[in-house]
Amino acid sequence: MTKEKAIKNKIKRHGLSVLFVHCTVAISTFVLILTGLFGQFPMAGRYMINRLPGLSWLSDFSVTLSVHYWAAAVLILAITYHIVFHGIRRDFDMLPRKGDMKGSVKLIMATFGYGKEPENDKYLPEQRLAYVFIGFSLLILVFTGAIKVLDNLPDINFSRVFMLWTSLLHNLGTILIIIGIIIHLGAFIFKENWPLLPGIFTGKIDLEYAKRRHSIWYNRGFVRKS
Amino acid sequence: MSDFSRREFLKRSAAAGVASGVALTGFGRNAVASDVAQVGTMIDLTRCDGCKGLDTPACVTACREENKDRFPDPVKDIPDNWPQKKKEDWSDKKDLTTRLTPYNWTFVQNVNVEHGGKRYDLSVPRRCMHCDNPPCANVCPLSANHKMPEGPVVIDSDICLGGAKCRSVCPWGIPARQAGVGLYMKIIPGIAGGGVMYKCDLCYSRVKSGQTPACVEACPRNAIVFGEKEKMRALAYKRAAETNGYVYGDKENGGTSTFYVSPVPFEKINAELMKQKAAQSHPKTPGFPGMPVDMENFTDTANGIAWSMAIAPIAGIAAAAGAAYKTMKGGKNND
Fold first, then answer.
1. A72 touches chain B (CB under 8 A)
2. Is residue A41 part of a domain?
3. How does pLDDT run across A46-79, given as a tens digit for each residue?
């Protein structure tokens, strides 16, 4: 391990690009869900959420549609950046590997005190699976959302059946992404995962934690994929 | 990373760029333009007299007769739209013909307006304008509302959940909601959904089979003319030129398939209609549209933002390529 990566018992887990993508995807997705559920689906007025302080704008469809569009642009930028950046670098640590399903079960069992936790690489097997689930959901949303945006333009009118399926998939994608986010955040109910939290804000995690829980990654010596 | 060449970098950039481009913007453009000629109507207010002498104008009666089998048949005990203690139930007002309801998809407004020192009694048949780029259809989160290739904007009552967003974004507030009927009653009635939205579909099934809409056929004074949309537009302007009149519906909401011709400016008609609405016992009750002039389409602002979504992937690719090149050349761990 190089010196600069172990300053003050911390170890660098994420670079600026990852922090940027995670931050922009998280914020834009939150805004999209908010303006999608309460604005595109007219729930804010129905459930009187617009009467809560500061949320009256949620029942103004022209505002929520515009905010939805801007947030979608930010999400598209972040996703494109993510795919291209890691594609060029051939950085595929987050992609699922053979045995991840089994590994996740073992890891969850170990969390509850059954059996020993397997040795982990930079990411836990369940993190890799969650990544694909969330990524897939986001791609469904971006793709179907782009079709809906095109359909809203004055000179474009897709067929009725095509739009029915597009909307259905967009709504399904929304449900999937909400489930994905709940599972993603739900992982932090377990104390064992808490040391990973600072990583997504500062890029660094505790050195001892990395040695113990991400031993494969640690032992690789951070030559490139640290 | 020291052996990482510029050539290799460009190769990887191109591959990653294409992959993300396909994933994010790809293959959505199926048949966009239609070869089907769009239809429309021209409503001549110099001819319409509201069928004076009849209890109900002929166009209204014909519409009700034509569509009676499609009118809602709600359950007896309609649940409130939780958490609110209200619902929209018109089932005890089925005979109402003086406004738009789920049981009355067209009606005639009567105004008396002054123009050029002369007073005019005008009867204005009202119903869906069948917009060129209908916000009601665009914003429906279920795509239950759609503009058909022939022009009519049609609500699928089997899919509609009755959120009434279509009515909120319609400049005329045309669609009418009936609670206690439709898909939401089979899911979680009372908790989500509010009924089904109903409105004129320009007798779409008749149009598809080569017939004219029922209201057109029934009009005794040929005040409502049906045909190819462009011909109706041309006819409206021709008629306006002949009568020194005004056209409504060509520019409004970005363009519609309904062209009114009036001997008085529509600003005056709208002002009179707003007066009538304000004088009603429940002025906020939907179903009594005005005729606001030159209003913009609800989706105009959002469509102006759409360009940002086209630029976003380009910016993402450029920024990522730059960042990746920097980190790889410098051998930095910046993943």
1. yes
2. no
3. 999 999 999 999 999 999 999 999 999 999 999 9
- Assess if residue A82 is contained within a domain: yes
Q: Report the range out of A22-31, A36-45, A197-206 with the highest average pLDDT.
A: A22-31
The residue ranges of chain B whose pLDDT is under 70 are 1-35, 330-335
Model pTM above 0.95: no
Query: What is the β-pairing status of strands A204-206 and B39-44?
Result: unpaired
CB of A61 less than 8 A from some CB of B: yes
Please count the other Cβ atoms lying within 10 Å of the Cβ belonging to residue A21: 22
On whether residue A27 sits in a domain, the answer given is no
Q: How many domains does chain A have?
A: 1
Tell me, what CATH number does A82's domain have?
A: 1.20.950.20
Residue B239: count other Cβ atoms within 10 Å of its Cβ: 19
Enumerate the β-bridge partners of residue B114: B119
Interface test with A, best of B309, B314, B327, B332 (most A CBs within 10 A): B309
Contact B324, A84 (CB under 8 A): yes
CB contact under 8 A, A42 and B325: no
Please state, in angstroms and rounded to a whole number, the distance separating the CA atoms of residues B161 and B178.
Answer: 10
Q: What ipTM is given for this predicted complex?
A: 0.86
Cβ–Cβ below 8 Å for A73 and B308: yes
